[in-house]
Amino acid sequence: MWLILFYVIKQIKAAGLYAVGFVAIYSYSTQAEVLPTSQITVDADQCRIDFFHLAKNQQQQFEPMIQLAMVYTKNSQSRYVAIKRKIPHNKDASVQYENIQYQRAHKPVAVFTTYWQPLNQEHQIGALVVLGSDNYQQAFDKITSLMFQDNGHFELFPHYGADTKDTSSKDLALQKQIVKNKSSQNTRLVKTSPVSKPRQGTYQFYVQDDHLAQFKKCLP
């Protein structure tokens, strides 16, 4: 049942999901690096949007903990949602299944499943399918519809197994969101308010600029 999914994961690796670069686009007086929260790729071959959940590492620097890539290949009309997760060195990187909830106001509205595969010592990679299905294109349609409704601001909540502890929760508690100030066209760092502060283990995604509009226009 998972043969198609395995093929998609191979395509994800071949497409270079893990090779997306994170370049500083603005610097404060403290010279702290500021990373993008989304990236758009639209060309003759594909429509693709990447979302990044940022968190502070042990060096108090922001880095992407989760990368979510939504890809539509024009020639083959194939579509899938790929996801890459950073894992600590002391975390078990063995292959595993995991359910991931799409949330609104900390309440799940859709549940997906991924089959994690080790990419290297620091990352795992997988493709999302709807829980109880092996159709990765259906997962693309579902999460895209929800994402458009939420204007590119959404949450994912992974369910860790009993043998897998979320050792990154302290870093996630330090989560800050980077958004684009459209009026001044300057990137600014925005602290999470107590009301909207994410729960431990909740990954939040925010679209930048007009990336969502470009992605939507690119799709058939």
* Relative helix content: 10-25%
Strand content: 35-45%
SSE run: HEEEEEEEHEHEEEH
pLDDT < 50 stretches: 18-31, 161-199
Largest beta sheet: strand ordering: 1-2-3-4-7-6-5-8-11
- Gyration radius (Cα, Å) is 17 Å
Structural class by SSE content? alpha+beta
Number of helices: 4
Secondary-structure map with pairings?
Blueprint lengths: L2 H13 L22 E5 L3 E11 L5 E12 L4 E9 L9 E9 L2 E12 L4 E8 L5 H14 L3 E6 L10 H5 L3 E5 L4 E5 L12 E4 L4 H8 L2
Antiparallel strand pairs: 1-2, 2-3, 3-4, 4-7, 5-6, 5-8, 6-7, 8-11, 9-10
How would you describe what is shown here?
- With about 220 residues, the chain is an alpha+beta fold.
- It contains four helices and eleven strands, in the order H-E-E-E-E-E-E-E-H-E-H-E-E-E-H.
- The protein has helices at about 5-15, 135-150, 170-175, 210-220, and strands spanning about 40, 45-55, 60-75, 80-85, 95-105, 105-120, 125-130, 155-160, 175-180, 185-190, 205.
- The strands form two sheets. A nine-stranded antiparallel beta sheet has the order 1-2-3-4-7-6-5-8-11.
- A hairpin with a 4-residue loop joins strand 9 and strand 10 (about 185-190).
- The longest helix has 14 residues, at about 135-150.
- It is globular.
- The model is unreliable at about 20-30 and about 160-200 (pLDDT under 50).
